[in-house]
Amino acid sequence: MVDKQSKICSQPDCGGHVLAHAVCALHYRKQYYRRNKAKHNMQMHAWRAKDPNRAKQMVAASVAKKPQQYQDYRKAWSQANKGKVNSKTARRRAKRHQATPPWLNKQDMKVITSFYSDAAELELHVDHILPIQGTSFSGLHVPWNLQMLTPHSNKVKSNSLPPHGQQLAVNPKTA
Predict the structure, then answer these.
(1) 24, 56, 112, 166: which could join 9 in a potential S-S bond, CB 3.0 to 4.6 Å?
(2) Residue 124 and residue 149 in contact, taking contact as beta carbons nearer than 8 Å
(3) How far apart are CA 4 and CA 16, in angstroms?
(4) What is the pLDDT of residue 3?
C-alpha cells in the first residue's frame, strides 16, 4: 500500500504523504470510518440533534460547493429508492388534496393551475406561504397562499414561515 522509501501513499491517484499510520491521512480516515461506522453514525446523530441549524448550514455549504455531484447523488438515490420516493409523493399529494377546501370554486382552481404554469415557465418554484405540511399548523392550498420563489429560496424556506418581516416571494414580472 505504501512505498516505504518515498513515504508516499501508493493508492491509485493518491500521492498523499504518509503520516504515522503507514497510509496517507485521507486513506487512514476512510479505513477508520469503515471500521467504526456505527460509532461514527451515533456521534453524528447526536451532534445533529444538538445543533441542527449548524448541521443544515454545513450540508448547504457542501451542496453549494459541488451542486452537480449532489444532483447526481439525489438522482441515483431516487432511482434506487423508488418506493420511498413514491410514498413521499403520494403523502404530499394527499396532503395537498386534504388542504384544498371544498368551497374553492373552478375559477380559483384555474388561478392555481395558471400560477403553477407561470412558475414553470419562469423556472421558479411554487411555495405555500403557510406550509400545507407544517409541524404545528397547516395552510390551505388556495391561490392567496401561493408565492413564487427561486429554487434556492424555496429550499431555504422549506416547511416553515419566512422570518418575521422578510419577504421571500419573487415578482414573476421581474424574475
Answers:
(1) 24
(2) yes
(3) 13
(4) 47
